[in-house]
Amino acid sequence: MRIFLRVFALLLAVVAATGAIVHFAFRPTELKIAVPATDALNQRVFGMASEMLRTARAPVRLEMVSVDSPRSAMEALEKGTVNFAVARSDAAMQGRTHSVMILRREVAVLIAPKTGKLKKVTDLPNVMLGITRDGSLDGSLLWPVLDYYGIAREKAKHVVVAADDVTTAFRQKKVDAIIAVGPVASKQLSDVVSEASRGITGALQFIDIEEADAIVKRVPALESVEVDQGAFGGRPPRPAESFTTLGFSVRLVTNTRVDTDTVAELMRQLYLIRQNIAAAVPGAGLMEAPDLEEATPFLIHPGVRMYVNGEQRTWFDRYNDYIYLALFLGTGLGSVAAGMFGLAVGKREDVPGIQRQKVQAALDTVRDATSAAELDELEREADAIFRSVFAHGAKDELSAASIASFDMALSELRGRIAARRTALAPG
Fold first, then answer.
1. Is the pTM above the cut of 0.70?
2. Closest CA to 49 of 64, 34, 67, 59
């Protein structure tokens, strides 16, 4: 009974180990994403993505962590308190940060009256520039332009103007031009252009940054963007003809602590729910994978290449080594269990071997016994055999068949001893 319990306990251990491996393989991966509080759009995007992935029981889950600023997001990523961060392209190039997705591209649009003071970029020191913004915006788009043209930054006069106040600012001559920043196809940017057209007397113009390509070579984090004719709608179309400006990208970034399979799976899940997010959050459907063929200064995470190239591994591909190891260990433990069981059974059969030989020898000796003293000795031998068999049986080391055969043999031996004692009795 004890041997059976040991074998059963060993089999339970194998089952428990297998269950633990299966649980580890199938449990969802929990990921944290740091999103600056100033980025209201991505706050909504990843808040909704977190709910959708959890509802769909996706293999990866997201937890959005709101931080004070883009710098705080990058610091959290560096410390390892989060797995991903939302960052602008200038921050995404710092350290060993790897790009995962481009969430959106934003451009700087300079708008001024066609008959106003601002005709070209070099006129910036002569005008009051209004800066519209949704959230935090520093001068990282304006300063490279000024630096390239040799214009001292302190000479550029600017004031913050709310998007709703653009019309009033132009009508009251508070500003001579407006710089708006946002995705080209966004309603936010189109609304600013519409507000400017209502506040400007006569036609408006979009200032072309002709040297955008040269500026980008100096500042690789920026992008040269051509805004197509009619990109902002309206009649007549705005702009009336395409122009070149500067822009940057907002990216989802990580580092090498996150493995390639996790990054590839996250990209797949985000693309699956992208349309649903875009329907609920205007401007959220602009996410795209980085172009792997394009020469870029950004580090691209290997998981992105795996997903884009269709090399994403299946569950079996990822865990086949563990499966084979579990099968190997299970087979080995099964063999050990079978061996132990066989050994236990063997011991149960071999334990009474000597006693069985003694019984057989005693049965043969009874026939030749010539005195009562010899029969007494055989009687004591039978008692010793009985005590030995009883002790092994009490320890569960004998099978029922062995016990039955010993019972029959000892009964036969005692019967023969009694018969021989009678035969040798006087008279």
1. no
2. 64
